[in-house]
Amino acid sequence: MESHEPATHTTDLRRAPRRPVAAPIRMRVESETLEGVSENISGVGLMFFADAPLRVTIEVEEEGATRSYSGRLVRAQKMSESSTGYAIEFDPH
């Protein structure tokens, strides 16, 4: 598994405390189709907005056990040529 550098320092607006963990993750995308309206387009990409969230299920393998969480993708950010960061908001318990 490749090492990932932490994100650059930003103002902490988090709603819950975090703890560092380097665990294997598996993400399953539940939404087959996501419809929206484009904001802009170029020769290398497109920005669009959708009313519905991109639903996902996350499996986290930690200390010999696998836990599943359902939620929605809230951010995807290219961190480098070989790494993309994904932020998932879990559904309330």
Report how far apart the termini are.
Answer: 30 Å
Number of helices: 0
User: What's the mean pLDDT score?
Assistant: 88
Strand residue percentage: over 45%
Number of strands: 6
Order of helices and strands: EEEEEE
Structural class: mainly beta
Strand order of the largest sheet: 1-4-5-6
Question: In percent, how helical is the residue content?
Answer: under 10%
| Oligomeric organization of the protein chains | single chain
Which residue ranges are poorly predicted, with pLDDT under 50 across at least 5 consecutive positions? none
What coarse outline follows from CA principal-axis ratios? Answer: globular
Q: Calculate Rg over CA atoms.
A: 15 Å
Largest sheet: 4 strands, antiparallel
